[in-house]
Structures are given as structure tokens and as C-alpha cells.
Design goal:
This protein has 17 helices and 15 strands. Helix content is 39%, strand content 12%. The chain has a 4-stranded mixed beta sheet with strand order 1-11-10-7. The protein folds into 2 domains: 150 residues, Aspartate Aminotransferase, domain 1, CATH 3.90.1150; 236 residues, Aspartate Aminotransferase, domain 2.
Length: 441
């Protein structure tokens, strides 16, 4: 396929549609020796002030550093985050992976079970399924939204399917109307992997609150950050009590609905510390202001990029009333640009605009094939089922998505509006000189 030629008429039309980008019409890209668009780093992350410091030193001086040592900050954060998400219950965990592990164990997912998930997600979504010796069943991506394609879920359901795990990738909602309807009709619980989706919304309700439970991460890059940390939210008391017990080595919570007291079931130590809880409570005071800034900048950046041939910004489903914009995702059309994605990313970096290529196909990871072919999986599922899994493990739209994706990070969206002008200007500069850039070694 021949690259789309960018004529002077097209350049002028694009610049006219983008008055803030007119200077990019004739500017020489930095990778070709020109001046970079941006010479200073984007907004630093994390953001902290004296409030955060006071919270941490308060825990230090109290001598109560863990929730089992008399501390109350974990409980205070849980109440705060439940209120923020509009749910009855919140369980603070060591990280987002721990929250997902608690969810699967609360639902009694184990050997012989199948779990549906997308192939375009962080590896933790897969790893927690493998830890249960359950079988991960991938459903192809919707290339326009970068989310699981809900239209393809039912074809992957079998009598062994026990749970659906949609991922709100980049903080943008998956198609929850369709997914929740399938879950209800097929009697399948839904775990929302909302690890990147703090304050995201579907039809006005917070992501993570619509399924049977939702799981969040507070890892260092996340929009709400305590270095490491996580949370499970739910309106289901039974599920919550089982998750709570599992996260504390099986000990039931006070006032639990569980019939057994003391050690009610098996478990692990997946607790959050009081230090992290204190930090999360102070960090949460600024999360809405940053979320609003990301909303505004993402909408503006989308309006700029949609005028540039070869760039397709991620779409949102009609029911998505808010994205968390943990990632600003777009697709790069190599043929339209006449430039490889690798060369495009290198040229962007030269302009002072860092960007990432995103995830690789999770369903094709070599380690996964090794796990599925292991003696443990063959013993549980049988060799015939393992062969079928390999035959059906095809996600062609996701392969294409992984080859085209370009990401900007959430901290690039919390600066002034002029930062968005610089991002779009850099893209346009590279677009206008793509033929010359493509000739570089």
C-alpha cells in the first residue's frame, strides 16, 4: 500500500484547521536537525506536599504501622474510597494484583475453571488466573476502543466458564452494558479490572462499582498513587467478607457474615500498610482536580490530532461518561504516514515528547504457552483441551492493535493546554517530513 501523499494543499488545510499548529507547517523536525518542540520535561509524577509528609510522619510516630497493630488508617481509607466510588464495601490490599487474587478466591475460582479476559492488558490480569490454575480464555480486542470486544464474548463461553474479567484499559470503560447483560443472563460474575480507571464512569456510575466487584491499583504510575497498593470494592457483602478473610490469611473480619469465626478459610497476607493508607488519603484530596484537567486536555488533544492524517485517537463507547485517562491511546497508520512506528516514536522523543508503543499480544507470550503446556495444566484440563486452547487462541484484531498503538501517559495530560499544542505540533512536524525521516538509517 502506497503512503498517502501530503500535498501542500493538505498541509495548508490542516494548519488552517489547527491555528495553534501553523508554526509546525514548515518547521524542521528535531530528528533532522531542527529545534525540538519541547525542551523541558512534562509534569512530574508523583505530586506531593506537606499534607502527604504529615500523614506519613503521623503513622511513624504512632508506632501503629499495620492494621493488625492497632492502626485505623486502612479502615479510614476504605471508608473514604467506598464513598468515593459509591459502593458499600472497600478492601485495601497490598497492590492491584492482590485485589484481583482476592476477587478470584472470593468467587472460588480454581483448577478446571475458565476465565474470560482481553489480550490487551497488563500481565497481572493473566497471572492471577494462572495462579489459580484456571484456564485464561482470551476474547479479541475492539480496535477502535482498545477494549475487550463484548460482541465476541459469548462465542468463547463454555460450561467451564466461571467469571468474566473486562479491563477498563487506560482508564476508559469497556462496554459494560453488553458485558453485564451477558454476565446476568449466563449467571457469570463480573470482576471489573479497574486498576487504571480511578474516577472513570459508565453512565454516571464509577467504574469498579457496576460488576460483582472492582479492583484498583495504586502503583507508582497510577492516577491515585501510594507507590504500591490496591483495593477491591463491592456491594456484595458475602463476596467482600470472603475477600477480606483471604487477604488476612483467612481470618474473618469483625461482624462478618461468614459462619466461621477466627480462621474462616485459606488465605494469604495481602494487606496494605498504615503508611500507604495515610498517603492515599492525602493523595485523594487532589485526584478530582487532576481528573478534570485530564478530561479537558484529552478532549482538546483529540480535537487536534483528528485533523492529522494517519493518526486515530481512541474512541469511547456511548455509555462512557468519563475516562480516567491513565493513558491517552491512539493508533499510528504506518502506510498513511509513510513511516514506521519505531521511527515515529524516535522522532517524537527527539521533539521532547515521550511516547510508548503499548502492550504486546499477551495471548502470544512464550511463558504462557509454557504454563499451559505444563504437567499441571495437562493433568487438570487434559491434553485434548490444551490442544483446543492453542487452536482457538487467536486474536487478529489485537495483533493489529499492538502493531499500531501509541501511548501518552497520564502525567502528560495534567499540565497546561499549551502542552497539548506541543504534542500535536510535534506529530504534525514529523508527518510533514515523514519521507525524509524514513530515509534515516
Amino acid at each position: 500500500m502506497e503512503p498517502t501523499k501530503l500535498t501542500r494543499r493538505t498541509v495548508l488545510a490542516t494548519a488552517a484547521a489547527l491555528p495553534t499548529l501553523r508554526s509546525a507547517e514548515t518547521a524542521r523536525p528535531a530528528v533532522l536537525g531542527g529545534d525540538p518542540v519541547r525542551k523541558q520535561p512534562f509534569h512530574s509524577w508523583p505530586v506531593w506536599d506537606a499534607t502527604d509528609e504529615a500523614g506519613l510522619t503521623g503513622v511513624l510516630k504512632s508506632g501503629q504501622w499495620g492494621r493488625t497493630a492497632g492502626g485505623k488508617r486502612c479502615e479510614e481509607f476504605e471508608a473514604q474510597y467506598a464513598a468515593l466510588t459509591g459502593t458499600k464495601y472497600c478492601l485495601a490490599t497490598a497492590n492491584g494484583t492482590s485485589a484481583l487474587i482476592c476477587a478470584l478466591n472470593a468467587l472460588d475460582i480454581g483448577p478446571g475453571d475458565e476465565v474470560i479476559l482481553p489480550p490487551y492488558t497488563f500481565v497481572a490480569t493473566l497471572n492471577v488466573i494462572l495462579l489459580q490454575h484456571a484456564l485464561p480464555v482470551f476474547v479479541d480486542s475492539d480496535i477502535e476502543t482498545s477494549q475487550i470486544d463484548a460482541r465476541k464474548i459469548e462465542a468463547r463461553i463454555t460450561p467451564n466458564t466461571k467469571v468474566l474479567i473486562p479491563v477498563h484499559l487506560g482508564g476508559s470503560p469497556a462496554d459494560l452494558d453488553s458485558i453485564l447483560e451477558i454476565g446476568k443472563r449466563r449467571s457469570l460474575p463480573v470482576i471489573e479490572d479497574a486498576c487504571q480507571a480511578h474516577l472513570g464512569e459508565w453512565r454516571g456510575k464509577k467504574l469498579g462499582s457496576l460488576g460483582d466487584c472492582g479492583c484498583f491499583s495504586f502503583q507508582a504510575s497510577k492516577n491515585l498513587n501510594s507507590g504500591e497498593g490496591g483495593a477491591l470494592i463491592s456491594n456484595n457483602e458475602t463476596l467482600f467478607d470472603r475477600a477480606f478473610a483471604f487477604h488476612g490469611n483467612g481470618r474473618a473480619r469483625r461482624g462478618s457474615s461468614m459462619t466461621l469465626s477466627g480462621y474462616a478459610l485459606n488465605g494469604a497476607n495481602l494487606r496494605l500498610t498504615e503508611f500507604q493508607a495515610a498517603l492515599l488519603m492525602s493523595q485523594a484530596k487532589r485526584i478530582e482536580a487532576f481528573a478534570k484537567r485530564r478530561d479537558e486536555n484529552a478532549a482538546y488533544l483529540t480535537s487536534l490530532l483528528q485533523k492529522i492524517p494517519g493518526i486515530r485517537a481512541q474512541k469511547l463507547y456511548p455509555g462512557a461518561t468519563r475516562s480516567a485517562w491513565h493513558l491517552f491511546m491512539m493508533r499510528f497508520d504506518q502506510a498513511a504516514f509513510g513511516l514506521s512506528r519505531a521511527a515515529f516514536l524516535k522522532a517524537l522523543a527527539a521533539e521532547g515528547i515521550p511516547a510508548a508503543s503499548g502492550y504486546t499480544p499477551l495471548n502470544k507470550e512464550p511463558f504462557l504457552a509454557n504454563v499451559i503446556n505444563s504437567r499441571h495444566y495437562k493433568k487438570v484440563f487434559g491434553e485434548a483441551a490444551i490442544r483446543r486452547w492453542h487452536e482457538q487462541n487467536q486474536c487478529p484484531q489485537n495483533d493489529r492493535l499492538c502493531a499500531e498503538s501509541v501511548w501518552f501517559m497520564q502525567n502528560q495530560l495534567i499540565g497546561p493546554r499549551s502542552d497539548m499544542d506541543q504534542i500535536a505540533s510535534a506529530v504534525l512536524k514529523i508527518r510533514n517530513s515523514a519521507t525524509e525521516i524514513s530515509k534515516l538509517a
